[in-house]
Amino acid sequence: MNYQRSSNLKKLKVFIAIIAFLAIFNVSKPTNVQAASSDYIPTIYLHGHGAGARSTDDMINFAQTHFHATRALLVVVDRQGVPHFFGTMDKSTYRPIVQVVFKDNMNTNFNVTSGWLHEIMTQLKQNYGVTKFNAVAHSMGNMTLLYYMLNYGKDKNLPQLNKQVDIAGHYDGIAGIKDKPNSNWFMKSGRPAYITYDYQHALKLRKNYPYKQVKILNFYGNLSNGTNTDGRVSTVSARSIKYILRGRYKSYRQVKITGYMGEHSMLHENPKVDRIMGDFLWNK
């Protein structure tokens, strides 16, 4: 009898302990979800020309390790422009990351690629409840993002851009194609002396960019070898986004990376870039 009573007492204590644990969990869980919901601003990563997931993997891995971001969704846009979503994301996802991959990764019609991004953003709003987003773009991904904002920036039914990170953007030409090293410069107005068709087109649509809404961080490289380029993009071209969006952005900061680590492709493999970018996205 004493043994049975002791056994029952132990079971009762275990039961009470479980109930107490569940009560504490249920009380604290909404607080955690609420805290996570305040960080439910997905960050979209866009790769450059001829690239894919690997070109943004290191940046995402750094964000996971050092800023506790969550790799939530992979969106693969097929050659017909149809996005396919993989992974899970909801308002409890802490600092969610959405990695975008274009199968047609050499398409330079930015009205087309921005249309693909528009479809992604539409589905993020409809299926994942996204109302705000951040964006990180490298190389040609910057042109997709810029054209998206110029073509659709006034649509308040879409998720609204919060913070924008530009890395090695070729807004006013690519070295050796529509630009040559040391052949362009900024005039007193801040406008490049020579502008490409794409740049001129962007200037015409600049007022579609949301007014005083977006904070911009712009990284550009200089190999310090006399060319004033990152090997692909001149410093003038990479910095020329400031003139396009003058008076429109909420804040603008540019960061120069010099030497080997300032090379075009090394900019998305650079821990210094990753650290500054993470602080900008999540600590400010």
Automatic annotation (TrEMBL):
It comes from the Bacteria. The keyword Signal applies. Keywords: Signal. SUPFAM superfamilies: alpha/beta-Hydrolases (SSF53474). The keyword Signal applies. Residues 1-35 form the signal peptide. This is Alpha/beta hydrolase. It comes from Companilactobacillus allii.
